[in-house]
Amino acid sequence: MRRSHRTLVIVLWRTLAICAFVLGVIGAFLPVMPTVPFLLVSAWAASRGWVQFERWLLTHRFFGPPIVRWRTNGAVSRSAKWLASTMMLASALMLQLFTVIPLGVRVGVPLFLAAVALWLWLRPEQ
Description:
Number of helices: 6
Structural class: mainly alpha
Number of strands: 0
Strand content: under 5%
Largest sheet: none
Radius of gyration: 17 Å
Helix content: over 70%
Shape: globular
Oligomer: single chain
């Protein structure tokens, strides 16, 4: 691979890592946005182009444990499952009660969220 091409690839991985990290941090403060999925993407992207940032994420006292649990055995903590399920339920209810949307969206989004919740609850916890 040419040096300029490799540099571009690294910059793209780092950009993805930072963007996902920023979205994850925003999600830590906004209840309608997830945190951990963005952190997982950030760590994954960092592992391909920014090993120091990946190491920082993995050893961070707040961000590290859910990433390590996921990488070790695909585990999601029970509290994270409850929080995610509650937020998905609240989102589905707000969609039904406070928006005017086509029937397909009104039915499809809650079904999708239910499928995600089911998948989430089937993940190991430790």
